[in-house]
Amino acid sequence: MKNVIKIKAKVAEKKVKQIFIDTDFIRLDAALKLCDAVGSGGIAKMIIQDGEVRVNGEVCVQRGKKLRDGDEFSFDGKYYEVIKK
């Protein structure tokens, strides 16, 4: 008879911070500044170009990427969702 080892894992729920926009879209670099993920546009440009930001689950290197209602992006282990008012 074989020994069976059961492992239980608890997956933490990801917390998503919502950012609200009044326009049809917001550029990715502006969204990073709006949610205080970065301190300046220059920093936003660098982290986007370095492939550190994901949009809807995929790495995005376009700092002018248009984010619309319902789009999600993540950086540094934090998740954000764009909501149109």
Task: Please characterize this protein's 3D structure.
The protein is of the alpha+beta class and 85 residues long. Helix content is 19%, strand content 33%. The protein is built from two helices and seven strands, in the order ββααβββββ. α1 crosses α2. The model has no long low-confidence stretch (mean pLDDT 92).
Count of β-strands: 7
Strand order of the largest sheet: 1-7-6-3-4
Distance between the termini: 61 Å
Major sheet summary line: 5 strands, mixed
Structural class: alpha+beta
Could you tell me the radius of gyration in angstroms?
17 Å
By DSSP (H or I, 4+ residues per run), the number of helices equals: 2
Range of helix content: 10-25%
Content of β-strand:
25-35%
Low-confidence stretches: none
What general form does the structure show? elongated
Order of helices and strands: EEHHEEEEE
Averaged pLDDT: 92
